[in-house]
Amino acid sequence: MVRIGVGERRARLGRRHLLGAGCQAADPVQAATAMVALHATDPATVHLSIAARVPGSDVAGTERALYDDRTLIRMLGMRRTVFVVPTPFAPVVQAACTDDIAVKQRKLLVKHLTEAGVADDVESSGRWLAAVEESTATALALRGSATAQELSADEPRLRTRLSMATGKTYAAQPYVTSRVLFQLAADGRIVRGRPMGTWLSGQHQWSPAADWLSGGLGDKPVAEEARVRLARAWLASFGPGTAADLQWWSGWTGGQTKKALVAVQAVAVDLDGQVGYVLPGDEAPEVPVEPWVAFLPALDPTPMGWKDRDWYLGTHKSKLFDTTGNIGPSIWCNGQIIGGWGQPESGEVRYQLLEDVGADSKSMVEAEAARWTTWLAGVRVTPRFRSPLEKQLSQS
Q1: Residue 53 · residue 34 · CB < 8 Å
Q2: Is 341 among the domain residues?
Q3: In this structure, how many other beta carbons lie within 10 angstroms of the beta carbon of residue 85?
């Protein structure tokens, strides 16, 4: 097997993840395409991930792609996570990942409805859920777009409460509203539209998929073909990676991952003792790029692209990740993480380096911190999942 060492893996990031000078994207769609998908669990991440890769980009340009041109779409995807993907690629993600998620989540919701006493048995709960879904979808179609609160007024059954973790200290009785809307979205029937507030808001209006996009999400490939296409896209952007990396990133089973790698004719390579994979013909070294520095937001797709992160993260996991595996804001230099950043209430970008990178790289870091302070223009971004270092740097 061809050996691809840590140095080569890091070198690929500058060009393939559009972070090196002269390698960046022309627009938000190109940035999302290069990364396969942009994490959107935290709404700020989408804007910041694009700004890191598209010189001169701004919030208005990303919002235009999302809500006016609709060349990007926010949807549920890999690992039951919300992503922003190029609209033509949405049917692939839906068939490769989201359809399976929808089946599993429907079964779970029906179970919870039965446990809450909404119906006497699973079959009856299933019928109740189907009726509420149809009523909610009809109400949304009549309105054109609506918030969860507005739909709850139209369909009172959305205010039905579930009984979660009964008898535990963390027991709760949430409304079924978000679960029903989640299910409709997972089935590809409704989509998240504009946020209710600023670009930092996590509350969105909902719209019927067929109204948001002509023909809805479009024609889906069969699931096996979709998984092959998604695996090929991941390898092109994140390869080399191990089968465990791809399985973690996609949320697939081991069997699904293995079949997809076989179907794309992935080439096995030596990752310093581990077996990794690249696309056929992608074994050669990457064309070098000039030295680069990047400030990436929490949950950026670059650090969230692999399960095994030691080759770019080093010993800094405890400072940069929360306890559930979500990364905070990070600073990169030539393909490795060298520090983290945050914002106090005053809004400027503060940073801390965790590696000795030399005077030239440190000057690049200082310039990039100043650029981000200007770009954010006093807007303070507090990540949804906060890392220890980000919390420290954000203290006033």
Answers
A1: yes
A2: yes
A3: 25
Closest by CA position to 332, among listed 308, 348, 311: 311
> How many DSSP H helices and E strands does the chain contain?
17, 12
Name the pTM for this structure: 0.95
In a domain, 351, yes or no: yes
pLDDT of 167 above 80? no
Phi and psi torsions of 276, nearest 5° = -115, 180
Q: Domain for residue 218, yes or no?
A: no
Which residues, including other chains, have CB under 8 Å from residue 49's CB and lie 6 or more apart?
A: 31, 35, 38, 39, 296, 297, 300, 301
| Among candidate residues 204, 169, 243, the one with its CA nearest the CA of residue 82 | 204
Query: How many residues appear in the chain?
Result: 396
d(Cα 219, Cα 217) in Å, to the nearest integer?
Answer: 7
What share of the chain has pLDDT > 70, as a percent?
Answer: 100
- Residue 361 amino acid letter: S
Contact at 8 Å (CB) between 157 and 180? no
Q: What's the rounded mean pLDDT across residues 142-158?
A: 97
Residue 175, pLDDT above cutoff 80: yes
375: closest CA among 335, 328, 343, 340?
343
Would you tell me how many other CB atoms lie within 10 Å of the CB of residue 340? Answer: 27
150 belongs to a structural domain: no
Nearest CA to 252 among 41, 93, 110? 93
Residue 165 has pLDDT above 80, yes or no: no
Of all helices (H) and strands (E), which one includes residue 91? helix 90-93
| 190-195 and 82-86 beta bridge pairing | unpaired
Domains held by the chain: number: 1
CA-wise closest residue to 38 among 260, 297, 257: 297
Tokens of residue 27, six digits: 């627009």
Range of the domain at 326: 293-391
Angle between helices 243-250 and 223-238 (to 10 degrees): 120
